[in-house]
Amino acid sequence: MRIRFRGTRGSLPVPGPQTIKYGGNTTCIEVRADDGSLLVLDAGTGIRELGRELVAEGAASCDVFITHIHWDHISGLPFFLPLFVPGSRVTLHGPGDPLNMTGIEAALARQMEYPFFPVRTAELAADIRYRTLVEGETVDLGFARVTPLLMNHPAPNFGYLVRCDGRTLFFTGDHEPFGNIYLPGDEDFEAYAALVTERRRVVLDMLRDVDLLVIDAQYTPEEYQRKKGWGHGSMATALELAREVGAGMTVLTHHDVNRTDADLDGLDAWLRARWKDRGVRFELAREGLELQA
Amino acid sequence: MNNDVRQKLLEAVERMPAFPKSVHQVLELSGDINCSQKDLVEVIKKDPVFTLKILRLVNSPYFGLSREITSINHASVYLGLNTLKNVALGLAAVGAIPRSASDRLDMGAFWLHSLAVAACASMLGRKLGVSRDDVANYFAAGLLHDIGKVVFALYMPGRFETATRMAAEPGAVLHHCEREVIGATHADIGGLLAEKWHLPGELREVIAAHHSMGEGGDFMLKDCLFAADQISKKLSFGSAGNFDVEPLPTGVGHRFNMTMDELIADMPSLGEEVENARIFIKLGESR
């Protein structure tokens, strides 16, 4: 299984001279099986370039797994060229929205609604299918099996475990470590702590010995203290998790929009010094980075 | 309104159940962007009926969770603050009102009308720049504006039926018919109920005055509620026994600087927002 990062930013695209090395596009990962079959994780603005390449080769067939429908994870979708090409087949998988009682089809339909976008979904030429997933069900694509897991985020948001070519990849676009809403001494502190432990256990069990972990690490530990409840983790919490599950390789992604290449280089050096000899192999996600899982 | 009528209304109002404190608190917390997850969880947990409804909703197929959620703490860990807050807000508002035992009022249609007015009043409030904190009041005002009809239907069913039958005639207006038959309108008794429930002053006032518009333009919530009521009737979102769409008074028109049709055109997502609220009608009504 080969992974290529097409977009590594959280929140918003940030193109410019300060974001060349790590990239300015929002989240998107291309996953190729050894036989060339394709699945895509998230449809941030990074998916546009992938779409151009696919169409250059003719009609495309692919499965896109959306973690959740916050803008940065879907904003490239209306610009994904295979959707416009007759003969292409695109299946969008993702979580439903229980409060609005809509499925993943709403991700595309809503953002393409007039007056937000000039083309409506009804006018797209590809064979577009939708599959709203529920937690724990496994989608068998033949060349890969993908299982969603509900992560901790202000919106219903899946992490995806991809099993392909005998290897495993877990991707969580956004995720904040589970926390206790009570303080030590509060009546419910222990009971809540037990529930948090149980949720963590579910995540740890699913990620155990994963070959490649791609994880939200938007904040520094200091920033995280000020941004608890925003739905993102810190570099430290991500690497702790990686160590705990014994991930073969970890890629930290969802870079904060305010970070320049120099900032990220600095953080990379700082993390390497801090995590030296702790048995965790990691990289910071860079647009264009390719890895073999 | 004479004293006899007032006494009868007060007796009817006395028979209505109290407005649950927890619902009040959830409405308040939901309007606060900085509301803590712990505060919200604590409020919900203290109300067993509310707790049960939330658990029923999060365990429904809409959520498609892989394991059963067994407590509010569990839901809090699993779903996080925002989802829980949205679930609670929707359920809180609808669940506050007793299910009518009367066949004088089609409660499904009544709720749909009330929710449509709530959604529309909130949108109009936002359009006028009302703060997030205050928009919850606009929603509550829309939801509760016709609550007097529930009191009538429950405790003065015969006379309310006469009034609604009269109002079904072309050109008739329900609150005029109510005044003729009962001696007071659903707005009058709604205002009295709002007092019993100790709702905030502005909410009490707007429920009591939602059919006494004059030229309009006296306060923003009242103008938004009036416009939302007419728009919901015009678009036939549910029904609460009154089909007469009144024109916007001059003051209300000036407030928005738009005609009713222009306002409608300016809110293309209204239908969707109303649709979204339907699940809360279903679950909120369940006991």
TrEMBL record, chain A:
<dbReference type="InterPro" id="IPR001279">
    <property type="entry name" value="Metallo-B-lactamas"/>
</dbReference>
<protein>
    <submittedName>
        <fullName>MBL fold metallo-hydrolase</fullName>
    </submittedName>
</protein>
<dbReference type="Pfam" id="PF12706">
    <property type="entry name" value="Lactamase_B_2"/>
</dbReference>
<feature type="domain" description="Metallo-beta-lactamase">
    <location>
        <begin position="25"/>
        <end position="218"/>
    </location>
</feature>
<dbReference type="InterPro" id="IPR036866">
    <property type="entry name" value="RibonucZ/Hydroxyglut_hydro"/>
</dbReference>
From TrEMBL, chain B:
<feature type="domain" description="HDOD">
    <location>
        <begin position="16"/>
        <end position="213"/>
    </location>
</feature>
<dbReference type="InterPro" id="IPR013976">
    <property type="entry name" value="HDOD"/>
</dbReference>
<dbReference type="InterPro" id="IPR052340">
    <property type="entry name" value="RNase_Y/CdgJ"/>
</dbReference>
<dbReference type="Pfam" id="PF08668">
    <property type="entry name" value="HDOD"/>
</dbReference>
<dbReference type="InterPro" id="IPR006675">
    <property type="entry name" value="HDIG_dom"/>
</dbReference>
<dbReference type="InterPro" id="IPR003607">
    <property type="entry name" value="HD/PDEase_dom"/>
</dbReference>
<protein>
    <submittedName>
        <fullName>HDOD domain-containing protein</fullName>
    </submittedName>
</protein>
